[in-house]
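User: Could you walk me through two proteins back to back? I'd like the raw sequence and the structure tokens for each, with a short line separating them so I can tell where one ends and the next begins.

Assistant: Of course. Protein one, sequence then structure:
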Amino acid sequence: MGFLDKLKSAKSWYNKGTKMVIQGNYKEALKCFNKAVEVDPEFDFAWNSRGLILEKYEEYSKALDSFNKALEIDPKFVMAWINRGITLGKLEKYEEAIKSFNIALEFYPNQVLALSNKGTALGKLGKYDEALNYFNKAIELDSEYKPALEAKKTILKKSEKMNE
């Protein structure tokens, strides 16, 4: 198989995997993303998508490996940094998660998902004032972003209890 054929084949597997995700067939999607990275080990989007499916199945270590591989290929892949941070948060590695969100925010300072998730990680560490700042920034950029709105309410309740 020539270079261009390989790329077409990997892209074809990736597209099929994406369709499987849309249909809710995650097991088949994972097979497709696995095939895409087997055909083209430098396909960063396929590694990221593979990580998302593994994260969905709570295979966090394998998901991190996939996000790390995507970032090894493209260190400026903002969504892979965010996905890595979210997965680290699920492993309760909040400091490390914050580092991933910080890198994403260096590349894209107004990334609502990174801002909100950084706020969540800060809140888990009990840094409520800092967390509120990040939720407020996210809400300022997208006033209807429900995860930030809900997380802000939760943090406000926690900080009120601490002040009682």
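----
Protein two, same layout:
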Amino acid sequence: MPKPVVSVLNGIAATAAAALFMVGCTNPTSPPTQTNADTATPAATAASSSAAATPPLSLPVSLNAVMVGAIDHASDPLFGVGNAMYGSGKIPRSDADWAEVQFHAYQMVILGKVIQLPGTGPKDAEWAANPQYRAFADSLSAVGMDMLALTEKKDAKGFQAAGNKLIDICESCHQAFKPEIPTMKLYHRALHKQGR
């Protein structure tokens, strides 16, 4: 029986949070150093060797899967707030509605960092190493932060400009790196219709 979309997305969000926690708690480029080799203990030496041997962090799925399975789903409710100003979409009415929008804005902030990790896709390592791609991903996180601020103010009208900025970031990145949208046979709407 396929997992519900919410369950899958919660799993991706939990994985993303754990990955960011691990990245924030380690510094593979600056392993601990000893100022005097005579004072190094066996435990300190073993810990230093272990940290140096830790492989770089990577995703267990393709970046395309993260984009389709998480970013698309996080962005839909965010676009819905801005689109409501044009007559479609949904304006948050209650604190619970705004908390839901805030949840999706947090996902956007986190996912902009997650997609900077290489995944299993054929071009993922190349993209993750490219400074232009990383700048687009950072911009995704930045617009998520803008949307978080809008949820604090309960500023539905501000979501129009923020949503347009999000579209510009996504489209510009896709033009530069992935013009054959979608790829790897992953389709947002098809997944949604199938209940996956």
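The longest helix spans residues 131-153.

Let me know if you want the two compared in more detail.
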